[in-house]
Specification:
Blueprint lengths: L3 E4 L9 H14 L17 H8 L3 H17 L4 H4 L4 H10 L3 E6 L3 H10 L8 E4 L11 H10 L6 E5 L2 H9 L3 E4 L11 E2 L10
Parallel strand pairs: 1-2, 1-4, 2-3, 4-5, 5-6
């Protein structure tokens, strides 16, 4: 079995993608705005910058709308405990007992990653936590995964990445890593394994 497990956050630990999508679409509707894309697949697993490029393709309009979105965002924050996959605590605890190293590598904002870890009481589970904000290029570039491997001090062959989105899976494959995908209604053909559910990680 692998020595280290690297987890994505949104869509893997936190089943949040639909919540985020609906929140964005609600904001646009309430403000009589038309999003550049109304396809949830365009928003799954991508960086916040890419999200806004998809929402507002015109750069001259993007910053103004994004600024207007901030108060709405603050009033409609996700409750991470509510959207935490219920199998996560058991799986992480089991892997820790087996002596595995655990890392969190997310394209998301560092402040939100840290808030999730606090609210879900998971900070103690991870040896390494890296945000895509802290690397040169976010997913689908491999940077966040390459940086995570470096921080873990393990070889690529000793790691497995748990992802859900095409963007995240591609990033991990570009880093030369084995990928297990948590089931999601998106293209996961590049994954080495598609899991039955999150809990099946400890059955492999």
């Amino acid at each position: 079995m692998k020595k280290a497990f690297i987890f994505d956050m949104d869509g893997v630990l936190i089943r949040s993608e639909e919540f985020y999508f609906e929140r964005r679409m609600r904001f646009f509707k309430e403000n009589n705005l038309t999003p550049g894309s109304s396809d949830i697949d365009d928003y799954i697993g991508v960086s916040n910058e890419k999200v806004w490029e998809n929402l507002v393709p015109e750069p001259s309009e993007r910053e103004q709308i994004r600024t207007k979105y901030q108060p709405f965002l603050e009033k409609n924050k996700i409750n991470y405990q509510e959207y935490l996959d219920k199998q996560v605590p058991k799986v992480l605890a089991t892997l820790q007992k087996q002596g595995k190293m655990l890392a969190l590598a997310s394209a998301g904002e560092e402040k939100e990653i840290n808030r999730m870890l606090r609210e879900c009481d998971l900070a103690q589970c991870f040896n390494v936590v890296i945000s895509g904000e802290k690397v040169k290029k976010n997913k689908p570039a491999p940077d966040v995964y390459l940086e995570t491997i470096k921080a873990l001090h393990v070889s690529k062959d000793d790691c497995v990445v748990v992802e859900d989105s095409p963007t995240g899976i591609l990033a991990a494959k570009r880093a030369g890593l084995e990928v297990w995908a948590v089931p999601a209604p998106v293209d996961q053909n590049l994954a080495d394994v598609v899991l039955e559910d999150f809990g099946s990680i400890i059955e492999k």
